[in-house]
């Protein structure tokens, strides 16, 4: 059973397009996150949601819009894609009260041409 | 400010040799510390974690790490490296509740015969 899943695994698109990445967790966690890993492998938080509510937005351009339809899902929609958006995007989840142990999805490699 | 420093960008060890990967952190509250491993093209797998108590923690795949509060360090060790350990290793720090993790820039481990 996959704990945190993401679709698609790979996404290749043209500049200016709009795309979405989906994330689902079946761990029953109440908090979900999006992290971005750049070409130098540096991982940085983008957003976090707790019980469907946005709690952290780390100065990400407003072209990025996360949406959490329920506790188990956190999707990331990106408008007007730019070359610099090329990266690997990781979804993660955790449960408050469990020492912040975060479980990561397999990642989505986004390539903007 | 919260930060994690992994001073070694790339380490090469011989198979069967011992390994130590360094990690120093800066965190304003009680830190929760983690080591993750990322194999090429893969997601992040949790190796081990420290929350409190015994400062020497055991993880999966024969890894261990020692928390030293006085040195703000959480170094990862393995007594005998296997070729399959070649990967990118990330140290991360987080806090209570659902705070995002702050990652170091990673150390790439190469294993030679």
Describe the largest sheet of chain A: 7 strands, mixed
Helix content of chain B: under 10%
Oligomerization state: heterodimer
- Encode the helix/strand succession of chain B as letters: EEEEEEEEEEEE
Gross morphology of chain B is globular
Chain pair sharing the greatest interface: A-B, 27 and 26 residues
Number of helices of chain B: 0
Rg of chain B to the nearest angstrom?
A: 13 Å
Q: How confident overall, as mean pLDDT of chain B?
A: 94
Q: In angstroms, what separates the terminal alpha carbons of chain A? A: 34 Å
Task: Characterise the protein shown here.
The complex is a heterodimer of chains A (113) and B (113). By secondary structure, chain A is mostly beta strands. Chain A has strands at residues 4-7, 10-13, 19-25, 31-37, 43-50, 53-57, 64-70, 73-78, 87-94, 103-104, 108-112. Chain A is globular. Chain B is mainly beta and 113 residues long. In chain B, 0% of the residues lie in helices and 50% in strands. Chain B is built from no helices and twelve strands. In chain B, strands 2, 5, 6, 10, 11 and 12 form a six-stranded mixed β-sheet that branches. Chain B has a four-stranded antiparallel β-sheet with strand order 3-9-8-7, with no helix packed on it. The relative contact order of chain B is 0.33. Chains A and B meet through strand 4, strand 5 and strand 10 of A and strand 5, strand 6, strand 10 and strand 11 of B.
């Amino acid at each position: 059973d996959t704990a945190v899943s993401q679709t698609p695994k790979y996404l290749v698109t043209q500049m200016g397009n709009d795309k979405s990445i989906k994330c689902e967790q079946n761990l029953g966690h109440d908090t979900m996150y999006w992290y971005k890993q750049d070409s130098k492998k540096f991982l940085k938080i983008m957003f976090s949601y707790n019980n469907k509510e946005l709690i952290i937005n780390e100065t990400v351009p407003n072209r990025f819009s996360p949406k959490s339809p329920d506790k188990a899902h956190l999707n990331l929609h990106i408008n007007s894609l730019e070359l610099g958006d090329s990266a690997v995007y990781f979804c993660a989840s955790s449960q408050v009260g469990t020492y912040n142990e975060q479980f990561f999805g397999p990642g989505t490699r986004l390539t903007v041409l | 400010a919260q930060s994690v420093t992994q001073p070694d960008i790339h380490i090469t060890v011989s198979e069967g040799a011992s390994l130590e990967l360094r990690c120093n952190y800066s965190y304003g509250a009680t830190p929760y510390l983690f080591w993750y491993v990322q194999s090429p093209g893969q997601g992040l797998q949790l190796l081990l974690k420290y929350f409190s108590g015994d400062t020497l923690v055991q993880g999966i795949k024969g890894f261990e790490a020692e928390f030293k509060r006085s040195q703000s360090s959480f170094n990862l060790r393995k007594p005998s490296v296997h070729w399959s350990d070649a990967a990118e290793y990330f140290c991360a720090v987080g806090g209570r509740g659902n705070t995002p993790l702050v990652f170091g820039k990673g150390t790439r481990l190469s294993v030679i015969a």
